[in-house]
Design goal:
Elements: E1 2-6, E2 17-22, H1 30-38, H2 42-49, E3 59-63, E4 72-77, H3 89-103, E5 107-111, H4 119-134, H5 145-148, E6 155-159, H6 169-197, H7 205-218, E7 222-227, H8 229-234, H9 238-244, E8 252-258, E9 266-277, H10 286-289, H11 297-312, E10 317-327, E11 339-341, E12 347-349, H12 357-372, E13 376-381, H13 385-391, E14 396-400, H14 403-416, E15 420-422, E16 440-441, H15 449-461, E17 466-470, E18 476-477, E19 487-488, H16 493-502
């Protein structure tokens, strides 16, 4: 799909579909009234008959019958202007592209609503991301003719002045930057989605390493190192290696580096990469195991984000480290009651082999802290069902003992339109991790499970400024949303790119 900024009066736009975005009552929208007048009041009559009131998610399609250059008009509701959050326009962009494909339109022009200031460029970025993310489809294994049919929409244009007034140089530049950013972010999100949606039989630790190597090959400022079991054993990564012992697939620690000249800071991203999680000897029931190919969503997010960061450019040296393995059952698998020695020497008693992500991340954090020595460190993991109980399926839980860093991260997530909420690292819950035979055990009690997982990770971060992001809920969806089809979402990629390139 090609995206462009065009200077053309809306009524004479030579496209298959003209899209108008209405904020609130359509009869009070100036462009709606102009188009309505051109159609002899037929558009307003259609809106009345369809009970279209400009509410969020409402849409109206209308044949212009020669009144406009575009043969079809789509009017999309975005709610009240006062309540509009710019990231919500992703859904509008997704709806516009969906309508175009449904009616067979090859080209559309969307008239950007007047929001004022920098919000216009931000709106164009979100509309573009929505169009790309909303039309995403993982169809590699579908064989039917309909599944292979390409979408009709090929050209998506933005009109920033309905009367065709030429934009100033600053506005034109801002729109160009917004379009470039949107396409880079959406491409990275879709890359993460592809990795998450692949079956675990294909997306093994070795294949994730291959995906990282392909990204490094694209960008001259990106390098990659892949550490196998032997090297990880030399480093003393006893927790990480124990989790993967039950599998025939070799565990891999993947380390991508984006290194610009004169970097301001060194920032590390750490992703949980359990490519399939059976629960080990604490075996999950079948319905809970069915979707466990998504347990590498954190790894997919940090690896894919490097692609966008390298495309857009960044002032910081960025390290993405993914600890990748399978958690399966066999005669070699780690067992309840085992005592593991971590890379930093901490001993851990295993009281639940299904709490494996914190073990892999603990050693990955120690590796990053000791080998990279970053100024800031973030981890992303589908870590706990407890976080989903607390916050639901759409919101990530964020934990940190560094207030300024956490505020900066949450501000970036808000701009990127990804729902996150800070949870406390309640010190008293640390008591739940005490063990009579080791320095600590890997799980606490049922209540506060997301927080005790965060406290476990905190053990290994020491004094490095750190933020933990539990993406267990929003990493995948069982039912689609306008810009998020069912399956892997690529959650956290947009926030990572926003933080690193504009944080």
């Amino acid at each position: 799909m090609d995206f462009s900024h065009v200077v053309e009066p809306a009524l004479s736009a030579a496209v298959d579909l003209l899209v108008i975005v209405v904020l609130g009552d359509p009869t009070k929208d100036s462009l709606f009234r102009i188009v309505d007048a051109a159609t002899g009041k037929a558009l307003a009559e259609a809106a009345r008959s369809e009970s279209f009131e400009g509410k969020t998610s409402q849409s109206l399609t209308f044949r212009s019958a020669g009144a406009l250059s575009a043969p079809r008009i789509a009017v999309l509701g975005a709610g009240n202007r006062a309540d509009l959050e710019v990231p919500a326009l992703r859904d509008v962009g997704a709806a516009a592209a969906s309508i175009a494909n449904r009616v067979g339109a090859r080209s559309l022009a969307l008239v950007v609503p007047t929001l004022g200031g920098a919000r216009e460029a931000a709106a164009i970025q979100m509309l573009t991301e929505g169009a790309l993310l909303g039309t995403y489809k993982f169809g590699r294994y579908l064989t039917g003719a309909d599944a292979k049919k390409a979408p009709s929409l090929q050209s998506f244009a933005f009109i920033t002045d309905a009367k065709g007034k030429k934009p100033g140089a600053a506005q034109a530049k801002a729109v160009k930057i917004a379009l470039d950013r949107a396409q880079a972010v959406a491409a990275a999100v879709c890359k993460a989605r592809d990795m998450i949606n692949e079956p675990a039989a294909f997306m093994t630790p070795t294949q994730i390493a291959a995906e990282a190597e392909a990204i490094a090959k694209k960008h001259p400022k990106v390098t990659v190192q892949v550490l196998g079991p032997k090297k990880c054993e030399e480093l003393g990564m006893g927790m990480f290696l124990a989790v993967g012992k039950g599998s025939d697939q070799e565990s891999k620690l993947i380390h991508l580096v984006y290194k610009p000249k004169n970097a301001k800071k060194k920032i590390a991203l750490i992703g949980k990469g359990v490519t399939f999680d059976s629960g080990g000897y604490s075996l999950k029931p079948s319905n809970a195991m069915e979707d466990m190919k998504v347990d590498m969503s954190g790894a997919a997010a940090v690896i894919a984000a490097i692609d966008a960061v390298a495309t857009l450019g960044c002032d910081h040296e960025v390290h993405a480290v993914a600890a990748c393995c399978e958690n399966l059952v066999s005669g070699r698998a780690y067992k309840l009651g085992d005592v593991l020695t971590s890379m930093d020497g901490t001993t851990v008693e295993i009281n639940n082999t299904d709490a494996e992500g914190r073990l892999t991340l603990g050693d990955a954090i120690t590796y990053v802290r000791s080998k990279v020595q970053p100024d800031e460190m973030f981890d992303f993991a589908t870590l706990t069902g407890a976080c989903m109980v607390a916050l639901g399926p759409y919101t990530a839980g964020v934990m940190s003992d560094h207030d300024a860093l956490c505020r900066g991260w949450l501000a970036a997530a808000e701009r990127a339109g990804e729902d996150m909420w800070r949870l406390p690292l309640t010190a008293r819950l640390r008591e739940q991790l005490k063990s009579p035979v080791a320095d600590m055990r890997n799980t606490g009690d049922r209540f506060g499970g997301a927080i005790t997982a965060g406290l476990f990770l905190k053990t290994f971060t020491k004094d490095t400024p750190w933020v933990h992001v539990d993406i267990a809920g929003p990493a995948s969806l069982s039912a689609s949303r306008p810009f998020q089809p069912r399956g892997g979402t690529g959650f956290a990629v947009a926030s990572i790119v926003e933080y690193l390139t504009r944080g």
